[in-house]
Amino acid sequence: MLIRKLFKFESAHIVRNCSSDRCRRSIHGHSYKVEVLLEAHALDNGQMVYDFGLMKGTIKDVIDAFDHAICFWDKDDPEYIRLSQEFSARWISVPVSPSAEQFARIFFVVIDAILKNTVMRNGESDVRLHSVIAHETETGYAQAFREDAENARMGLIKLEDLVFSEQVKAEWHDPKMMDKLIAGEPFVNPDVPLQVQG
Asked: Name one Pfam family in it (predicted).
C-alpha cells in the first residue's frame, strides 16, 4: 500500500546550464509542492502505513528548510554564492544543480536516511520510501525513485554535502538534526499506549 503526504514551499534558484535562457541566467522562484510517498505491506497498530502526524516532524523540517530560501549549486560562481549567503539569512548549498529533478533526489536521500534512522514504536512494519515527487510548476514535476537517488550518473548526493544556513537550522525543532542524521543517531518515535487490543 502507498500513502502520500503533500508539502509546500516557496524557493529561489538559478538552474545553470539548462536550455532556458531565463532560468540559467536569472534568479527566480517557484511555488513548490513535494509529495512524499511511503509504502508498506503491513499496517501499524493504528492500522496505518505510517501516521501522517509523524511526518510533521523531522521530514517536514527538512522540506520546510527550503521555504523562503535561496538554493544554489556549490560549484556555481563563488561571488554569486558569497552574495547569496550575505543577503539571504536562509540559504542552502547543494552538490547538484537545484532543478526539480535534483530536488526530488535530494529529498529522497534525506527522507530515506531519516526513515532508516527512525526507531518505530507503534508496530510499523517494513515502511520504506517509495518515491518523491517535486512539482516545480503546475504543469511540471520530477519523480525520483531509489534507483534515481543512488544513481552516480545523475550526481552523487551525500548528506554531508548539503549545507544549511544557521538561520535555517535555528528554525528546526532540533537545530542539530542534520548533524545527528549524518552521525547515524536514532530518531525515536513516541510510545503509543494501545487503547484497543487485537
From this structure: PTPS
Look at the block and give the residue holding cell 527522507: 111
> Where in the sequence numbering do the catalytic residues fall?
23, 68, 136
What are residue 107's phi and psi, to 5 degrees?
-65, -35
CA proximity to 63, closest of 161, 177, 141, 187:
177
- The pLDDT tens digits of the residues spanning 17-76 come to 999 999 999 999 999 999 999 999 999 999 999 999 999 999 999 999 999 999 999 999
Amino acid at 126: D
Bridge partners of 7, per DSSP, are 34
pTM more than 0.70: yes
Contacts of residues 172-176 at CB distance under 8 Å and 24 or more positions apart, as own/partner, are: 172/61, 172/65, 173/57, 173/58, 173/61, 174/58, 174/61
The alpha carbon dihedral of 10, 163, 141, 6 has a sign of: negative
By the 8 A CB rule, do 18 and 109 touch?
A: no
